[in-house]
Amino acid sequence: MTWLLLFSLAAILFLNRYLLLEPRLPIRLPVIVRQTLHYSAPCLLTAICGPIILNKGGLSDLPSNPYLYAAIFSIACALFIRNMLLSVLVSLAGFYSLLYFFF
After folding, report:
1. Alpha-carbon separation of residue 17 from 11, 25, 51, 100, 103 (angstroms)
2. Among 1, 18, 74, 102, which has the minimal tally of Cβ within 10 Å of its Cβ?
3. Over pLDDT 90: what percentage of the chain?
4. Residue 93 pLDDT > 90, yes or no?
């Protein structure tokens, strides 16, 4: 169920961004709409990741929640590493090493 949801949301996001932002398609949107569409991926990821991070015990379980530390590490990677693929790979490696070594 989770993978189906993730893949369907990814497909919706891709089609949304492709149809509305591809310059070769005859659809022309106002500048303000194109600028707001650039924020759709971070908003979607926040909506997906928020419940995962706060899933187990809510706010009382945050000091021992590996998902919280992985999210903070991923944000730091995204800020310092400007390459998207490298940032994702380093974030995944950090998350799995965090789970293996500390929790």
Report:
1. 10, 12, 24, 36, 38
2. 1
3. 5
4. yes
Contact 37, 16 (CB under 8 A): yes
**Does pTM top 0.85 for this prediction?**
no
Amino acid at residue number 47: A
Match 């021992």 to its residue by tokens: 64
Do 49 and 71 touch, CB atoms closer than 8 A? yes
Which residue has 């009382």 as its token pair?
60
- Provide the pLDDT confidence category of residue 59 given band limits of 50, 70 and 90: low
CA separation for the pair 75, 63 (Å, rounded)? 18
Specify the length of the chain in residues: 103
- How far out from the chain centre does Cα 2 lie? 15
Are 17 and 37 contacting, i.e. CB atoms less than 8 angstroms apart?
yes
Cβ–Cβ < 8 Å for 12, 44: no
Residue 77, pLDDT above cutoff 70: yes
Domain ranges of the chain: 54-103
